[in-house]
Design goal:
This protein is mainly alpha-helical and about 120 residues long. It has a domain of about 35 residues. About 75% of the residues lie in helices and about 0% in strands. It is flat. It starts with a helix and ends in a 10-residue tail after the last helix.
Length: about 120
């Protein structure tokens, strides 16, 4: 166990050195590549304006997303009515999707409990 801890410490030290050596260059490159998204000069007023634009743009997209949801639901209803014609591949994809949703639910429950598996805090 002590050797694993030493290994972990050395790996963390190597990663820290790598980040300190190459981090600023990566940061500058990232900003240069995305400079069209940067508001100049940065100000509180501009940040407030952008956050309001984002909020109301998302709010305006609700009808479009709602319509897409109802189309998907109609498609699922159609599939359910004609389930005799359903292929094995489609059923397998649906089963995998359901399994993935269940796995994400379980992972969310574990995270919500503070990464404990029993639900009790130790």
């Amino acid at each position: 166990m002590a050797s694993k801890l030493t290994q972990l410490q050395s790996k963390a030290c190597q990663a820290s050195k790598f980040v300190s050596k190459h981090g600023s260059a990566y940061y500058k490159q990232l900003l240069e590549q995305n400079k069209q998204y940067i508001q100049d000069p940065p100000s509180v007023e501009k940040c407030n304006l952008l956050s309001k634009q984002l909020f109301y743009t998302r709010l305006a997209s609700i009808p479009v997303r709602s319509e897409a949801f109802w189309k998907e639901l109609d498609y699922v209803k159609h599939l359910w009515k004609h389930r005799q014609e359903l292929k094995v591949e489609d059923a397998g994809i649906a089963a995998l999707f359901g399994l993935e949703c269940f796995a994400w639910f379980c992972a969310g429950e574990i995270v919500g409990r503070g990464f404990t598996f029993t639900g009790y805090y130790v």
